[in-house]
Amino acid sequence: MLKFQICLVVILMSCITFVSCERAQQMAGPMMPGEDTTDATDTTDATDTTDATDTTDATDTTDTTDTTDATDMVTGPSVVINELMADNDNTIADPQGDYDDWLELYNRTDSAVLLTGMYLSDKEDEPTKWVFPENTEIPANGYLIVWLDEDIDDPEGLHADFKLSKGGEVALFVDTDANGNQVLDSVTFGEQETDVAYGRLPDGTGDFQIVQATPGAQNMAN
Ligand SMILES: [Ca+2]
Ligand SMILES: [Ca+2]
Ligand SMILES: [Ca+2]
Question: How far is the CA of 73 from the centre of ligand 2 (A)?
């Protein structure tokens, strides 16, 4: 009889344990088969602490302040007309040995600029007169000389299909986009002296004035 009572107690205890386990699981919410360690998802909360590395993304935002290194960045076009000579008699010869009109472009930025699809002209009603050859590049903070001599077939050097009038006219630097032609820079000049250059002082930003002829180099006061 005592044995039977002990047996009954053991069975009862087992039942209670089983039921309380079931209750505990129900309280903990539905359980996926084979997934005991729902606490393991708590350890993925540990990846939330690696979200703390997201705060190092804050260093990425300081990378955006690196783009404010673009304090060097200029307003307006990257490349401008910087100097020209409309009557070159003995200042500088082109690669073919001719003393021709020339125009200097200056890149105001710290990056090389591709001039593909850009134009030079001396006619406002024909702004796309001469297109830069494919892959023409002007170096960072560098200069580029275009000979305005109509010698467009000469292989060496850049040769536009128009000249500048000594009596004065306009020179245009033009880009094209979906909105049409955009004059990036232009200079209107009056009558020019032979072998006298007309350029910005300082480079890239200053007003045009008579300067020392410095084709391909920094402009200098006359
Ligand atoms: Ca000329
Ligand atoms: Ca020439
Ligand atoms: Ca110059």
Answer: 35
Name the closest ligand to CA 191.
1
18-75 pLDDT, tens digit per residue, is: 444 344 444 444 444 444 444 444 444 444 444 544 444 444 444 444 444 444 566 7
Q: Which of 183, 162, 163 is nearest to 172 (CA)?
A: 183
Measure 110 CA to ligand 3 centroid, in angstroms. Answer: 18
Distance, CA of 35 to CA of 69 (rounded, Å):
53
Q: Are 120 and 171 in contact (CB under 8 A)?
A: yes
pTM: 0.69
* Ligand 2 centroid – CA 182 distance (Å): 28
How far lies 7's CA from each of 14, 107, 122, in Å?
11, 98, 112
Structural domain boundaries in the chain: 79-221
- Quote the mean pLDDT of the chain: 80
Report the CATH fold assignment for 79-221.
Answer: Immunoglobulin-like (2.60.40)
Distance 63 CA to ligand 3 centre (A): 35
Ligand nearest to the CA of 94: 2
Contact 38, 25 (CB under 8 A): no
Measured CA to CA, the distance from residue 178 to residue 166 in angstroms comes to: 35
Question: What is the whole-number distance in angstroms between the Cα of residue 83 and the centre of ligand 3?
Answer: 6
User: How far, in Å, from the CA of 118 to the mean position of ligand 1?
Assistant: 22
One-letter identity of residue 209: Q
Ligand nearest, relative to CA of residue 106: 3
